[in-house]
């Protein structure tokens, strides 16, 4: 349903009077697809480009190059107004979606706004639809007249989800939808997201630092490192990643089967250490960005960037030294 082909998004940062401005490769050649009704989890350390990828997928920001398709239609070719109509199909929920909202709007006004804009519904019909959606996100009708400031964190997030749902989208990008919430509330919102996905046949791109939540909600998981997707694997293989970076990142997911418990200490760095300052990014570097931290580095890694290639029907990995990971798949490492 959603497909990104070789998408790039660089930002210029800093002043750079003398040598020109530095560039940050927020998204550095990403290709991936989300099928209808599917949840693709997107994980990776802070600053690796997850949110940028989400924004570019929705064309909230135009990519520098590359193409984005939705149902076979190329969104990157649409004009502003065509794109606007298309956005109905794709919505986004942020960490705290309501914070961008006018606090003087009631819940009803917030949730019905897209309906009045896009569907040109009259107020009565819109109200009925808003009631329906509030019910779907498990909020009572009495919330219609409340203001964002009168809601708990979990209730606000439910309203944010209601607003994303109201136009009947087919895909929702969830950008860390749980991270501003208490642990107990996180579980409730996660269950709600799962329920909504089934009842509305939604597809999600689920961006999260919470690996257990990702495992719970996702069908497949994409791992990002410094702007590139380094591995895509099915949920059931979450404990058997192949790329050295995914092995480091996903090693904190509890392993159910002892056969697949591996000793990951070789990858560990001191707690609290800022990885980005230890391994500074040079945006003109031609090689694999992970090679400074990788215990399996070979010469080729500093010469070019590995492409994301299928190692079996369901799993893709971008690593030149893939035999390293294969041993894990075989349980021999
Ligand atoms: N508008 C912008 N201008 C300049 N640089 C930006 C902009 N937006 C993002 N970046 C940079 O692009 C990189 C990727 O940012 P992004 O927000 O996509 O990361 P992220 O993976 O979502 O991180 P987090 O997990 O902390 O939310 C970062 O280095 C960030 O500083
Ligand atoms: Mg982010």
UniProtKB/TrEMBL annotation:
Gene3D superfamilies: P-loop containing nucleotide triphosphate hydrolases. Residues 2-251 form the ABC transporter domain. One of its GO terms (biological process) is transmembrane transport. One of its GO terms (molecular function) is ATP hydrolysis activity. It holds the Pfam family oligo_HPY. InterPro entries: AAA+_ATPase, ABC_transp_ATP-bind, ABC_transporter-like_ATP-bd, ABC_transporter-like_CS, Oligopep_ABC_C, P-loop_NTPase. Keywords: ATP-binding, Nucleotide-binding, Transport. CDD domains: ABC_NikE_OppD_transporters (cd03257). NCBIfam families: oligo_HPY. Belongs to the ABC transporter superfamily. This is Oligopeptide/dipeptide ABC transporter, ATPase subunit.
